Amino acid sequence: MDMQHDYLCFRCNNLSEIILIVILAIFSVAPVHAEYGDVIINNKAEKSGMRPVIFSHWFHRIRFKCKVCHTEIGFEMRAGANDIRMADIIDGKYCGKCHNNKIAWGPQNCHLCHSGLPGLETGVRGGDSTGGPGKW
Amino acid sequence: MERPFTKQAMILLAGICIAWSALAVETDLASSNWLPLTRDDIHDPNGPGVQLLQNPSEALRDMPSDVVGNKVNWMRALDRGHINPRENLYSNKKNNVLDMDVLRQNTGEMNAVLFPHRQHTEWLDCTNCHEWLFKSKARATKFSMFDILKGEFCGRCHGAVAFPLTQCNRCHSVPHSTISSSATAD
C-alpha cells in the first residue's frame, strides 16, 4: 500500500514537472525575427569592408511587381546567384536601375542598403515556419 | 515523499514562465506582428542607416492580414488596391494577365492542385516561369513535392517570398472526389 502511494506521488510530481517543462519550452521559443523574404546579400560586401546588404522583399513588393526586378532588371530568383558589383550599380545596372536618385535613393547613400549585422551569410531569411528553400 | 528541491525548481520555473509571457505580451502589443528593424537580428542597430528605413509595422499594419509570412495577404492587398506596385521601369510592356487555371491531379492522397494563372500573372511575367522552369505544355514538367521543398519549381518563390509551404491547402485545394472524369488537365 505504502509503495503504491509513493508510486502515485512520484507520478504526480513528474506529471507537473513535465507540464511545466512543456510550458517553458513553448514560451522559450524565440520570437520571429527577420521579416519573411528578407535577403542577405554578402558575397562581396563584407570582404570590401562594408556591412552586408539587406534586401527586404516586403518593402519592394509594395512598390514594384515581381517582374520588374526579376524580368526587366534580370535578377535571378535565387539568393546569391546574382553577381552584383557596386561598380555595376553605379553604372545603372542591377539595383542601380532604380537606385539612381531618380526612382529611388542613389548609391551614395551607402548605409541605407549596407545596413546588416557583420557576419551574416548570403541567403533568404524570414520568420516563416518552413525556413525557406533548402532548409529542410 | 519529500522533494524540496523539485518544489523550489518548479516555483522558479513558474516564475520564469510568467515573467516571459508578460514580456512576450508586452512585445507583441507594442509591435503587433512586426518587429522594428533595430530588433530583427539582421539589421545592425548601431548602423547609421537603420533609423532612416521604413519599419514593417508602419507599412504593413493596414494591409489585409494573413497568418503566415509577412502577415499580409499580398494577393488581396493587390486586388483590393491597398498597394499599386509599378508594372515596369523603362519598357512599355503591357500587363499580360492570363486567366487560366491548371489542375494537377497527380498528387497522391493530397487534394489536387489548382494553379491559377491569374494571380501569378498579376505579379509575374510569363518568362519568370516559362519555359525554363515550367514547360507550357500540360504534363510536360515532372516535379515532386520534394523538389518544391528543396526550393525548386513552386519552391523558388513559395517558402521564400510567396506564402510558405506549410499552407498545404492553399495549393492542394480540390478534392479528387469533386473532379469529374471529363476534366482534361494533368
Helix-strand sequence of chain A: HEEHHHHE
User: Which strand order spans the largest sheet of chain B, edge to edge or round the barrel?
Assistant: 1-2-3
Tell me the overall shape of chain A.
globular
Tell me the fraction of residues in β-strands of chain B, as a range.
5-15%
CATH class category of the largest domain in chain A: Alpha Beta
- Give the helix tally of chain A: 5
- Structural class given helices, strands, pairing of chain B? mainly alpha
Structural class of chain A: mainly alpha
Overall, the morphology of chain B is extended
Give the SSE string of chain B: HHHEEHHHHE
Please name the CATH architecture of the domain at 101-178 in chain B.
Alpha-Beta Complex
Q: How big a fraction of the residues of chain A is strand? A: 5-15%
Largest interface: A-B, 67 and 64 residues
DSSP summary: helix tally of chain B:
7
Q: What does it look like?
A:
The complex is a heterodimer of chains A (136) and B (186). Chain A is mainly alpha-helical and 136 residues long. Chain A folds into 2 domains: 1-30; 38-124, Alpha-Beta Complex (Cytochrome C3), CATH 3.90.10.10. Helix content of chain A is 38%, strand content 7%. A 3-stranded antiparallel beta sheet of chain A has the order 2-1-3. Residues 28-32 of chain A have low confidence and may be disordered. Helices cover 32% and strands 6% of the residues of chain B. Among the domains of chain B are: 7-55, no CATH class; 101-178, Cytochrome C3, CATH 3.90.10. Chain B contains 7 helices and 3 strands, in the order H-H-H-E-E-H-H-H-H-E. Chain B has a 3-stranded antiparallel beta sheet. The longest helix of chain B has 28 residues, at 4-31. Chain B is extended. With 186 residues, chain B is mostly helical. Chain B has helices at residues 4-31, 56-60, 74-79, 117-123, 126-129, 145-149, 168-171, and strands at 101-104, 112-116, 172-174. At the A-B interface, helix 1, helix 2, helix 3 and helix 5 of A face helix 1 and helix 2 of B.
